[in-house]
Write a structure and sequence with these properties.
Layout: H1 3-21, E1 30-34, E2 39-41, E3 45-53, E4 62-68, E5 72-82, E6 85-92, E7 96-102, E8 109-117, E9 131-141, E10 144-156, H2 158-176, H3 181-195, H4 199-248
Parallel strand pairs: 2-10
Antiparallel strand pairs: 1-3, 3-8, 4-7, 4-9, 5-6, 5-8, 9-10
Helix pairs in contact: 1-2, 2-3, 2-4, 3-4
Length: 257
């Protein structure tokens, strides 16, 4: 099995999904985000700004904006702007907020600034990578809800990242050496340890798997060298034997008188 191919394939799928989540529309709404990280460490602070353009073009004059996040110690700042000038500003301190928007109050842009702390990982999985919802922005009209934009981000601890890097390295070594049953079995045990949150054991087993793969490659190279050497010796013996046979079958020189 090609571990690095599988890992890269899963990574591409995740990155593609995150890219699709980067822009959303509802009616004439245009939603964009600035400052979205590729990955975040548990316990660190992060800040992202989501901008909603033309909130009342091809939309009702009144609707409700809702934001939600899995960040902790959250602060939302919702600023309504009209041609770059601030019309109003509200702040919220919970993981979810709602705010009524009204065209009569003006506003052609809504800027949502979110700050918070990256949450703990509830369930460790090597593949797919652990993620949490950085933010979700929705539009509510009566009983109807529309998702404007949702973005998930990877999160990790120092130990989980170190273990993941060790597993990635072992997987790459196994692929580069053409695969080895013993190394792949050890790698599977490493991934299982990772999924159970036992990162020191996962990292140690990944190191063993990489060493087994490299030793298997070296053994294969040595076997090939011995085989080539043996073939060379046989070739030399055949050439030498041919020369000896030719010389042995030559008669004495005959000189013309």
């Amino acid at each position: 099995m090609s571990w690095i191919h599988s890992s890269r394939g899963a990574a591409l799928v995740v990155l593609f999904a995150l890219a699709l989540a980067a822009v959303g529309t509802a009616g004439a709404l245009s939603v964009s985000a600035d400052g979205v990280p590729n990955e975040t460490r548990v316990g660190e602070s992060t800040t992202v700004t989501v901008t909603v353009e033309d909130p009342f073009v091809d939309n009702p004059d009144t609707w409700t904006l809702r934001g939600a996040t899995e960040l902790e110690s959250v602060s939302w700042t919702v600023t309504v702007l009209q041609q770059g000038e601030q019309v109003s500003q509200e702040t919220y301190g919970s993981q979810e907020f709602t705010q009524e928007l009204n065209a009569d109050n003006g506003g052609d842009t809504i800027r949502i600034k979110l700050m918070g702390t990256v949450p703990e990982v509830s369930n460790y999985t090597y593949e797919p990578h652990e993620t949490y919802t950085l933010y979700s922005i929705d539009q509510i009209q009566g009983n109807s809800e529309s998702e404007l934009n949702t973005t998930a981000v990877r999160h990790y601890t120092n130990d989980s990242k170190s273990a993941r890097q060790a597993i990635d390295g072992a997987a790459a070594a196994i692929n580069e050496t053409g695969g080895n049953a013993e190394a792949e079995n050890t790698l599977n045990r490493s991934i299982s340890a990772y999924n159970n949150g036992n990162f020191p054991n996962a990292e140690s087993l990944a190191g063993d798997a990489q060493e087994q793969a490299e030793q298997a490659e070296q053994s294969q190279q040595q076997s090939q060298l011995l085989l080539y050497g043996a073939i060379g010796l046989v070739a030399l013996a055949l050439v030498g034997g041919g020369i000896y046979y030719w010389q042995a079958n030559q008669g004495p020189d005959t000189k013309l008188q």
